[in-house]
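hi! just following up on the protien thing from before. the input was this:
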Amino acid sequence: MEPDRSTGLRGAFQAWMRRAGVQSAVRWESGLVVVAIAVVVFGALTSSQFLTSGNFFNLSVSSGEVAIMALPMTFIIISGEIDLSVASTLGMSSATLGFLWNKHWPMLAIFVVLAVLGVVAGLINGLLVTRVGLPSLAVTIGTLGLYRGIAQIILGANTISNFPATYTTIGVNPIPHTVIPYNVAIFIVLAVIFGVVLHATPTGRSIYAMGASPEAALFAGIRVKRIKTMLFVVSGLVCSMAGALWTFRLATAVWNNAIGLELSVVAIVLLGGVSIFGGKGSIVGVVLATIIFAGLLNALLLTNFNQEATGIVIGGLLLVSVFVPNAAAFRSRARGLGRGRSLRRSPEIGAVHD
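and the predicted 3d structure came back as:
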């Protein structure tokens, strides 16, 4: 009986992906550790409040939802796609929460509705990308506006803020006997789960393979469309739940909650070493990027940096995250081409070809 060639190809392809991905990730993560230390030093030198427990809590709680949404975004970008509707899904979830609570729905039933809403929102994105064949950038730009528009229709100009203290204290109080906010604790648990799935399961290896080469992954027997659809569904579900956390933290439901936050989510993921072209990245890198991102913005805030100008910082991080790894890859390719030309010009090699 002849060996299964597709199985062998898939194993070789995924083994190569693991070796390449691990080497690249380790180098980038080492650099992120250095940057994180530099941010801590910068914060400590510019403000005496930076290293206090109270500031640590404020820094953590304000970045919890962004960090949570960055986890499914990591999977999606590694697979070669992108989801720009994450903040709008959060806003739609927040508006729905406020609307239903104002209609005297029990909170448990509202959570079920939010979960279904997130799944449907992600499924729409996934099906349009994988079944209709539209580019995820265009699809999620469209649903970014669609979901935000739905949020505005649901609440209009109304602001709902009469949530019970049982829930609103979750967003402003730490876990008892710690300085860790509830949303950060949720992020830590989810980061472990996402990390295990990405780095220690066949599904994670398939996600890397899809991002490196969708055609090769499909030829290797990976169900590309099904997995990508599920990634968008998970993103919708996680973002919808993040909407509840955001609402409880601010004790306010309004249609424009978290507007524009998708840029911060993408910036964190790319800063974490996830390639915008897919196929590379790690959860550890994204966790380190989250710490750097939150620490830097917090340090700037403590120095009375213009909060309206934080977009400059976010945009700069995005540019650096895209430019640096691709510049390194370009140099590597250039060196490879240079060595190839040298070999072709070598007298010994030339004699053989002649």
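The chain has one domain: 5-306.
The domain at 5-306 is CATH 1.10.3470 (ABC transporter involved in vitamin B12 uptake, BtuC).
cheers
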